Hints:
This protein is an alpha+beta fold. Helix content is about 45%, strand content about 10%. The protein is built from 16 helices and ten strands. A hairpin with a 4-residue loop joins strand 1 (about 30-35) and strand 2. Helix 5 (about 120-140) runs parallel beside helix 15, helix 6 (about 150-165) crosses helix 7 and helix 11 packs parallel to helix 15.
Amino acid sequence: MTDYTKVDFFTDASLIDDPIPYYDYLHSLGPVIPVPERNAVFVVGFEEAVTVFRDSKTYSSCNSATGPIPPLPFAPAGDDIGALIDEHRMAMPYAGQVVVMDEPDHAPTRSLLMRLFTPSRLAANARYMQTAGDRLIDEFAVSGQCEVISEYGGPFATLVIADLLGVPEADRGGFREMLSPEVREKMGVLPGQIGVENVQAIAFDFLRDKFSAYVAKRRANPQDDVMTELALATYPDGSAPDPLEAVKLASFLFAAGQDTTARFLGASLRLMCERPEVQDQLRQDLSLLPDFIEEALRLEGSTKTEGRLARVSTELGGVKIPAGTTLVLMISAINRDPRRFEDPNAFRFGRPKIKEHLAFGRGAHTCAGAPLARAETRASLERWLTRFSGIALSEEHHGPAGARHFSYNPSYVVRALRALHLELITV
């Protein structure tokens, strides 16, 4: 039996493939757990996490992408470190990206991003999803086998985001090749990778160069397309952002959404294959897919942790939080809080109020791409269930029922299934 008192969540590889027993251990300690060696606290309670997400004045998002690693570039002092955060913000990981912004910068920048997620744009993008999904399935359907992450999930997410942003059709093949999960993993672009203190996504360089060129062209020669809308977008007060802001937003959406969506598609299909009766239910009634997806997000959402930094000294869940303490919001554990979800480790189809999970966060920093991720997953699962009368895990790669094995990428930030091999029966 593992002695979890001696386990470092951030570096211990034994927690990667099956962290559930560790989450159960954390819940036995309470909703907020001090981690003095990291100047941090773990938050595993649902209500406590919602409190943090909704209180951006007390809790800064400046370290949301990486939590306590690397350490702060300054020494916290006093009961209010707001001025220190502002002074050193640009020395922290992912500086300048919307995910680590606080007010007053966050809301105006997020408003630019939300222009991509209007109902009309998402509806047009959803139509493209059907076509893209079928084209990718055509590439492997005849073989009766598929490795989901590399052959479907990664390419699908890349093509969908490219369509959403208006990337020219001629360039999409290059995006698909450069941003494949295998290439990104070899480059070491996963955030929070064990043993790496500050992993900056190399893919951002490729994306920055591409989108800089697109934005410059659209500003010089506007066209009737989404890229022009992004390039010419203004803040709510009518002022025009620096062109670099549009480049950052487009690059971040690609880098953040592409891999996480691909991995979650794999996780969803894994859950479906492990429950043949649920797969049959869904195939007979596709309108049940939203409930299935929400429970899959609760159990296997792609985000494992988010960070927050206590701007002022406070208290949470009965634990004193000095200013300068990192709060590690353990999303995967929070979504298994037994005080909120009955029988939390079980997959329960049709669980009441299932959309209350925190897979996409809550509050001002709720994942802007959540509607897109849900739509991508639903469109994909609809095509898979329609095209194949049987979808099963490959025993050659994952072992027989009762002795399955799966491998996940070594990250404390994302839950990233390395590969999912399936056997397929075509309708």
